[in-house]
Amino acid sequence: MIDVRERAKALNAELVNWRRHIHKNPEIGFDTPQTEAFITERLLEMGIDEICNGVAGHGLTAIIRGGQPGKVLGMRADIDALDMKEDTGLPFASTNGYMHACGHDAHAAMLLGAARILSESKNDLRGTVKLIFQPFEEGGKGALAMIDEGVLENPSVDAIIGLHTGTLWKGLGSGQVGYRFGSLMAGADWFEVTFKGKGAHGATPHLSVDPIAMACQAVSAIQMIVSREINPLDSAVVTVAQISGGTARNIISPSCTISGTTRFLDPETRKMLQERIKAICENVAQSMRGHADVQFSYGPSPVINDMEMTKKLRHAAVDILGDESVVEVPEPTMGGEDMAFFMEKVPGTFFFHPSGFGEDKDYPHHHPKFDVNEDVLWIGSSVMANFALTWQDN
Ligand SMILES: [Zn+2]
Ligand SMILES: [Zn+2]
Question: How far is the CA of 49 from the centre of ligand 2 (A)?
Answer without folding.
Answer: 28
